[in-house]
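Hello again, I could really use a second opinion on something today. Take your time with it, there's no hurry, and the full record follows here:

___
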Amino acid sequence: MAAFGLPNFGQLTEAFRKAQQIQQDAQKLQEELEALELEGNSKNGKVSVWLSGNQEPVRVQIEPSLLTEGQEATEQAILEALQAAYENSTTTMKTKMEELTGGLNLNLPGMNDEN
C-alpha cells in the first residue's frame, strides 16, 4: 500500500510506459496525417480542394467552365470545396486521435479523485 495516497511504483512504471507508447504513436500519426490528401468538392462538382490531414492546403482543381460563370459563382464553389475538405480533414484527424487515445485509462489512485 502506498503512503499518502500515492500510486505504487508498479503503477507509475506502467503509466510511464503507456505515456511513452502514446508519444511514439502520436509521432507516427503526425507523419500519417501529413501524408494524407483529403478531398473536398463544391456542390456543383466544379471545384476540388485537397488538404493534408493537418489541414495544410495541398492542391486545387477548378473546372474551366466555372470561370465563365462569374466571380461570385467561382468564389462560392471554391469556398464550398474548401469547407468540405476542411471538414473531411478535421473529422479524419479527430477519428485517428480517438483511435490513438481510446481506452487510455491509467487508473492511478489519487490522480482522479476530487478534492
About this structure: The beta strands are 38-41, 47-51, 57-62. The mean pLDDT is 83. The first strand starts at residue 38 and ends at 41.
